[in-house]
Design brief:
The protein has 199 residues and is of the alpha+beta class. 51% of the residues lie in helices and 24% in strands. It has helices spanning 2-6, 27-46, 50-77, 118-123, 147-164, 171-190, 194-198, and strands at 15-19, 79-83, 86-92, 98-104, 108-114, 125-132, 138-145.
């Protein structure tokens, strides 16, 4: 399984963690499976025609197994991959469709987590919301275990990147800054600021 996810990595990229939705979130899914199998047993027991009921029962059970396998398959492959360079969101939709998006640490503006509800508080899982720079949207990591720890990992990589590669000031930003300084200086002169007049 690990080698399957490594195909998403670039050469030299280091895998830090693979995150899936907390296992407790599968509780409702397994409850539905149990109900489906229980209804199949009740139907088979009380059906008037045993031969016809047996055929329906077998089809019912087969479809329930397919549904169960699909749910577990999607849960296993639907994940977030944390590396030393970026966050990869693998959105698995059924057996034959997946959508992969990524966010480099240099494009992250802010990351914060939320734990909402008694179940999430007790089992320590929640969401991490990652704001992307230049208003390019948000990456939402849903129902992952220990969100505070994961947020700390993301922030640490973000800060490390900013330390190693400090932001360069563009020409337009420099011109804007100089014009603001000149405006403030002229405003101070008009108000008779003695410090600005000495300068």
């Amino acid at each position: 399984m690990l080698s399957y996810f490594r195909q998403e990595l670039n050469e030299g990229e280091e895998l830090i963690a693979i995150l899936r939705k907390h296992r407790i979130t599968l509780s409702w899914f397994f409850l539905k499976i149990i109900i489906v199998f229980a209804l199949a047993m009740v139907f088979f027991k009380f059906a008037p025609n045993e031969k016809w009921a047996a055929q329906v029962f077998l089809v019912w059970i087969f479809l329930a197994f397919i549904y169960s396998f699909r749910g577990i398959f999607v849960w296993l492959l639907d994940c977030y991959i944390i590396t030393n360079e970026r966050i990869i969101d693998v959105d698995q939709r059924g057996f034959f469709q997946r959508i992969v998006t990524e966010v480099a640490y240099g494009k992250i503006q802010n990351a914060f987590y939320e734990i909402k509800g008694p179940l999430a508080t007790f089992f320590n899982y929640g969401n991490i919301k990652i704001q992307i720079t230049q208003n390019k949207g948000m990456l939402l990591m849903k129902q992952i275990p220990d969100p505070k720890k994961i947020q700390n990992i993301i922030v640490s990589f973000q800060e490390k990147l900013q330390t190693e590669n400090p932001k360069e000031v563009s020409a337009s930003e420099l011109v804007k800054y100089i014009s603001e300084v000149k405006n403030n200086d002229s405003h101070s002169r008009e108000n008779g600021n003695p410090l600005s007049q000495k300068m």
